[in-house]
Design a protein that fits this description.
285 residues; alpha/beta; Rossmann fold; N-(1-d-carboxylethyl)-l-norvaline Dehydrogenase, domain 2; 2 domains; six-stranded parallel beta sheet; three-stranded mixed beta sheet; 13 helices; globular; binds NADP nicotinamide-adenine-dinucleotide phosphate; NAD; 6PGD_dom2; oxidoreductase; NAD(P)-dependent oxidoreductase; 6PGDH_NADP-bd
């Protein structure tokens, strides 16, 4: 019997942990690394091997996933003292699922090529619940051959993995998606505040929305969060503020995009660690 592909997972935050768990549950060998070691230790109990450095993950695994916060984290993981580029391995597949700038993907793809590795940018749509159930939508930029190699792995993580172009196309697709997410979060918050101002019950408004053509997975989840006053981050507001900055840097400059960008930048200081729907609190202040 052919032995399963060996995988590596770097970045065990809200998203990375459940995604790495899906690979373990599928019976794939997973070598894990997280900057704060405690999160990796938690996965050891579930069958993962814990590596001391990013380079050691690349030494151990054929396909290495990255799921970290931002451009800076990606740069450090590649170019740091014990980063991926310090490994003498070659011919590996590096799959960056973090939401980062198209520019950083171009740079990291180039550095990867220099070491004989393939690089895919493969950011995801969906949050913790979709990560847990393997129902993410994955948008991929990179060479077709690398994509085909990754497809069986993506099948454990998402309901759709779509190659949308060459390097960084996935990042641009993700910025388009998260611009829309910003509109929806702020739109829902503004509708709730308008209804409250006119004495309506939030529960009634949300029931109407859920039964209308406006209903969506996002609005249902965030509507429940508003009702339960649960602002604990499933997707941290500061991460969306970052994505809207990335979109702006890529030329996003349309009327709604400008307003949403500004609102989320203003909300970040007070509500950055809460969920995106804490934009409601900011607008109410
Ligand atoms: P998170 O819970 O904040 O986790 C961030 C991860 O990045 C942690 O493992 C953190 O390590 C690591 N990290 C941060 N800076 C680092 C650095 N300089 N060097 C090495 N590691 C570093 O974030 P998340 O919610 O999982 O999101 C991860 C990515 O997915 C982000 O790009 C986000 O925009 C995107 N995303 C999130 C969601 C969502 O709903 N949460 C949905 C779609 C896409 P430590 O544990 O040491 O801090």
């Amino acid at each position: 019997m052919k032995s399963p592909i060996t995988t590596g997972w770097i970045g065990l935050g809200n998203m990375g942990t459940p995604m790495a768990r899906r690979l373990l549950a599928a019976g794939l060998p997973v070598t894990a690394y997280n900057r704060s070691p405690a999160k990796a230790e938690a996965l050891r109990a579930e069958g993962a091997t814990v590596a001391p450095t990013p380079a050691a993950v690349l030494d151990a695994a054929q396909a290495v996933f990255l799921m970290v916060s931002d451009d800076q984290a990606i740069r450090e993981l590649f170019t740091g003292e014990q980063g991926l580029l310090q490994s003498s391995a070659t011919g590996k597949l590096i799959i960056n699922m973090s939401t980062v700038s198209p520019g950083v993907s171009q740079e990291m793809a180039e550095l990867s090529r220099g070491k004989g590795h393939a690089y895919l940018d493969a950011p995801v749509s969906g949050s913790v619940k979709q990560a847990e159930s393997g129902q993410l939508a994955i948008m991929v930029g990179g060479e077709e051959g690398a994509f085909q190699q990754a497809e069986p792995l993506f099948a454990h993580l998402g309901k759709l993995a779509l190659r949308v172009g060459t390097t960084s196309a996935g990042n641009n697709a993700k910025l388009a998606m998260n611009t829309l997410l910003g509109f929806q979060a702020q739109g829902l918050a503004e509708a709730v505040l308008f209804a409250q101002k006119h004495g309506l019950q939030t529960v009634d408004l949300l029931e109407l929305i859920k039964s209308s053509a406006l209903a969506s997975v996002f609005i249902n989840l965030k509507g429940d969060a508003i009702l339960n006053e649960n602002y604990q981050a499933a997707f941290a507001l500061k991460l969306l503020a970052k994505d809207l900055r990335l979109a702006k840097a890529e030329g996003s400059n349309t009327p709604l995009a400008n307003v949403v960008h500004q609102t989320f930048q203003e909300a970040e200081a007070a509500h950055g660690d809460e969920d995106v729907i804490a934009i409601l609190k900011h607008l109410n202040e």
